[in-house]
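Each record in this resource describes a single protein on a pair of labelled lines. With that in mind, the following record should read easily:

===
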Amino acid sequence: MPLSPAPPSLARRAALPAAFAALSLASLLIGAKDIGIGWIFDPSPEALLVLTASRLPRLIALVLTGMGLAISGVILQQILRNRFAEPATTGGMEAAKLGILVALTLFPAAAPLLRMGVAMLFCLAANLIFVAILQRIRFRDAVLVPVIGLMFGAVLGALAEFYAFSRNMLQSMQGWMLGDFSRIVQGHYEMIYLVLPVVALTYVFARRFTVLAMGQDMAESLGLGYRGMVALGLTLVSATVAATVITAGAVPFVGLVVPNLVTLWRGDNLRHTLPTVALSGGCLLLFCDILGRIVIYPYEVPLGLTVGAVGGAIFLLLILRRPA
């Protein structure tokens, strides 16, 4: 696959920002409380309250979660050199859920930042263990890596559920298991802003992450500190996963679907494709969230279910169309 395919036309470049703007506006307008598009020209106090307390925080949380998880998928795919790696196929999300449960029981009065820190440590430990497992496997088929990751995640998920069940917390886990954004309101989502520095740092180190995907020997021969970049990448992924899981729960497949589709469209040069990956991640979550809001209106389907259905179908297509 070429690193730099022919640059897209102006119309194709404008399509993604236009779709993002349209989906963002639709996300602000659609909901159980109909505020209508007239609020733009003559905002009523009630419409402003709905927008500032619920719709706008939800929009921000969706966009940043999509951006963060898509970027996390890119980083993991560069480190593991596998197109099917992402936080949900490497055990990171299940580890973050287990970390939050442990923090809730050990430090019940702790601030959300401390809980996120514990979740990040669990996620980082799981990522390091997964990398160590893969290093012990000589034959690495492209599909074998995510299969091992899904099994590893299943073990961590079972541990998290047993831990919650033994402490009568299983019901409170449902939100994390389904990625429920209907709970996002002003004052309970600001942790997700931590995704912004992660996205910025990933862009700063984009060229180095591109070199990382060439393998340890080639990267070191080009003067790259391989182990340091791997540690930085896994830390950025762990911070993003912890922030998203503690804010809204586990949202699978974003980090798998978006980077692969963008690579097919724009190529492998991260310096050029990362903004597209980030914007596409936001668009995917906005689309799936709107779909979940209208399919059984005025009730909602949790985002994790709609993303799981859409992302799972694309995941299967990517496996089926890969070269034999």
Observations:
- The two ends are 15 Å apart (CA to CA).
- The chain is about 70% helix and 0% strand.
- The chain has a mean pLDDT of 87.
